Amino acid sequence: MSDRRPVLAVIGAGPAGLAAALAAAARGVRVVLTDSAAEAGGQFYRQPAPGLGARRPQALHHQWRTWERLRAGLDAHLDAGRVTHLSDRHVWCVERESGSLVVHALLGPRQAESVAVRADAVLLATGGYEKVLPFPGWTLPGVVTAGGAQALLKGGLSLPGRTAVVAGTGPLLLPVATGLAAAGAQVAALVESAGPRGLARSARAWAAAPAKLAEGAALAARLALHRVPVMVRHVVLKAHGVDRLESVTVAALDADGRPAPGSERRLSCDTLAVGHGLLPHTDLADGLGCRLDGPGVWVDAEQRTDVPGVWAAGETTGVGGATLSLAEGHIAGRSAAARLTGRVPDPAGWAPAARTRDRLRAFFSALDAAYAAQPVRWTEQVTDETVVCRCEEVPAGAVREAVGTLGAGDLRTVKLLTRAGMGWCQGRMCESGVAGVAGCALTPARRLLARPVPLGVLAAPAEPPGRTPGRSPDRTSRRTSDHSVTCHTSPHVTACEGTRA
């Protein structure tokens, strides 16, 4: 390293990671910002590929001015050498070694080579992922997740199809439906399993977050402008097609959450964008032994986890949107900078962000409760032939047999008996669906590795003890984003040195 400043490794360059990196870099800490994408922004500020020549990328985004401020701040810190941005790095493990935390990441699309960053502290801003629930026909080409459709639109400037149905539940469905409609797709319907009565119960929470109320009203108005039918308390029962999706059957739900007899309708479409909410990414936190609070990582008022030297912010602590992520990231960055430079953090300095955080946490907690209070008996519609684990092609009937005949009483035993969750994704996509079909509690799995890693990477020899950091003969120069970075390709290295190109 070129200086003696403490190093903070921020994992994830979405709203939370960017806010944390800017706050920490402005207060005397060297920041290494690591992300799997080619450009900063995360899913919320996902940018079109440069080669596409997008003229008005802001048309696909909310809060574009906030993004411009974040981007300008990041550029300034990159120019000054206070932040190093490592893109196309897929972090698979964080371990403690000789008083430091070492972040291991696979390189680029092939992910066959691993590099590492040594830091004094780590801030986890790893975001969330979509909750996927199976139903008959969900494996047909043309069925995508709601977030996947949004990613295609933002990052690839492409539509997943010409005629779409957006279905499932949760706040994400509104921006996905309006985004597809605005981009030229015919949205045949927005099918939402929740109903207005349940959401009305959280009216007090809406009143406490007027900006969110205004955002929801604006999206609803855009939906009406595009004449998109909204079907509340409805659900997709089945997707139909031979080689790809051709139509879906939807039905109204009764008070018990079951399809009402005679309410079935068939909608023609070539795309079904379906989502059932988001779950926090906690794999790296699990590997570090961080305590969980429900589905997310537990943090204190400073966004510190219970593991020394590890902070967490954004969706990894609980799903709540970009504004909440920005507030948590700002607090985490300021707290980490203070403690790494030997100062006592002053909560008064981040009081506005703390108020925003507390208000939005309460809002999203009420919103989650409103959606959860409206039952949907989705497992009853999953036939025994429906695949629930796509990696291992495990049908629902095998899961039910493991529970009913073989006596499996927990998700781990179901996995051992059926192989559901043993594929490439290691259950990250199918866990919710398998747990629902099995009737087992969805308990977080402790995984040492956050993603599949080549055996050659795991077998690579560790750096010999006593080697001076920064003196490896394997040192190479790499370009990430728009600045050059010098780092090691050996398994254990110091924080990379970066300058703008």
TrEMBL record:
Gene3D superfamilies: BFD-like [2Fe-2S]-binding domain, FAD/NAD(P)-binding domain. Pfam families: Fer2_BFD (PF04324), Pyr_redox_2 (PF07992). Keywords: Oxidoreductase. Residues 8-317 form the FAD/NAD(P)-binding domain. CDD domains: GlpA-like_Fer2_BFD-like. One of its GO terms (molecular function) is oxidoreductase activity. The keyword Oxidoreductase applies. Its EC number is 1.5.99.-. Residues 458-490 are annotated as: Disordered. SUPFAM superfamilies: FAD/NAD(P)-binding domain. Residues 472-482 have a biased composition (Basic and acidic residues). Residues 387-433 form the BFD-like [2Fe-2S]-binding domain. This is Thioredoxin reductase. It comes from Streptomyces achromogenes.
